[in-house]
Amino acid sequence: MKLGMVGLGRMGSGMTERLRRDGHEVQTYDPKVESTAGSLEELASQLEPPRVVWLMIPAGEITENAFQELLGILEDGDTIVDGGNSNFHDSQRRNRDAGERGIHFVDVGVSGGIWGLREGFCLMAGGPDEAVQRLEPALKTLAPEGGYAHVGPSGSGHFVKMVHNGIEYGLMQAYAEGLEIMHTSEFELDLEQISGIWRYGSVVRSWLLELLHDALDEHGGELADIAGYVEDSGEGRWTVFEAINESVPAPVITAALYARFASRQDESFAAKINAALRAQFGGHPVKKKK
Length: 290
Description:
Layout: E1 2-6, H1 10-21, E2 25-29, H2 40-45, E3 52-55, H3 61-71, E4 79-82, H4 88-99, E5 104-111, H5 116-119, E6 122-126, H6 129-142, E7 148-152, H7 156-183, H8 191-198, H9 207-219, H10 235-245, H11 251-263, H12 269-282
Parallel strand pairs: 1-2, 1-3, 3-4, 4-5, 6-7
Antiparallel strand pairs: 5-6
């Protein structure tokens, strides 16, 4: 099939290459890199109706601006696909806005990172049956065997991807805590060796564990060149918000999110409060700053 790809970053470039390798014709637009089009309007002109324009750009204002611009360019029967990590509430609203103009909207949660070109991308599509079915040739090319599903109506693709990323937070934190316990133990353990053998036959083996082993191999067991500062891109927060809204206990994902917050503190004010209180009620000594 023929489609337009907006955004040629780490994910969009890999997806574009994977599609082209399988015979799809992909026109592209990204102002930061060489593209077939110099604008969204030119990109639309390079496609024949019914057009498909796939957005692989950062969630939030950038995606919103591109979406609104496309609403003024595309025509009845065309399709906008958002493959970024947008909030599912935004996707539901965009589906309504697009529908008022006769334009289809499909939200696709995409997982696979920089390895997706080689291994394939796991795809979680949300939207009307007709719109998703039209995209299936591209979806089946992008995904590995068994790695694509139409998960539900509009917004559901990004909702499922949001929870996927929340789970990812918990898995990463569990590995991190386990290795820190071993790192600080009385034993001189080779963490690269241990993470290596865990990849084979262990019940905790996973692709994340393979990546962890690769990181230890690349940076050394002490990870001396990496700062202990962990960002979050929003999906973990949204997962926690939805857990609260649904009254669903999610202690692991929540704690993993808070651990990322803690990683960004040079010094904890809350810890200072605790130390001061212990001194006040129990006369416990306070460690002074040097």
